[in-house]
């Protein structure tokens, strides 16, 4: 599995609705947070190895009503205890 993190900029007043819509409609989502700064939401997704990240983001995430912009970060390795 490949982890990607996507930040979402939403139309004013829609961030919580966008978060709810993503949780309900995108099975690859792991978690989502409301954030401060240039973007309103930060979400973590797990994609199958070899899955086209560009198509996933443009077809499944950027098309959610209320999403104005996204910024995607691909994760290479997870570090942690144990």
TrEMBL record:
Entries under InterPro entries matching the protein: Dimeric_a/b-barrel (IPR011008), Tscrpt_reg_AsnC/Lrp_C (IPR019887)
Gene3D superfamilies: 3.30.70.920
Domain Transcription regulator AsnC/Lrp ligand binding: 7-77
Pfam families on file: AsnC_trans_reg (PF01037)
Official protein name in the record: AsnC family transcriptional regulator
């Amino acid at each position: 599995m490949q982890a990607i993190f996507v930040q979402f900029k939403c139309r004013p007043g829609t961030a919580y609705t966008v978060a709810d819509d993503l949780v309900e409609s995108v099975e690859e989502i792991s978690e989502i947070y409301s954030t401060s700064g240039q973007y309103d939401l930060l979400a973590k997704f797990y994609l199958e190895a070899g899955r086209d990240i560009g198509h996933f983001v443009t077809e499944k995430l950027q098309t959610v009503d209320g999403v104005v912009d996204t910024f995607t970060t691909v994760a290479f390795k997870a570090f942690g205890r144990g």
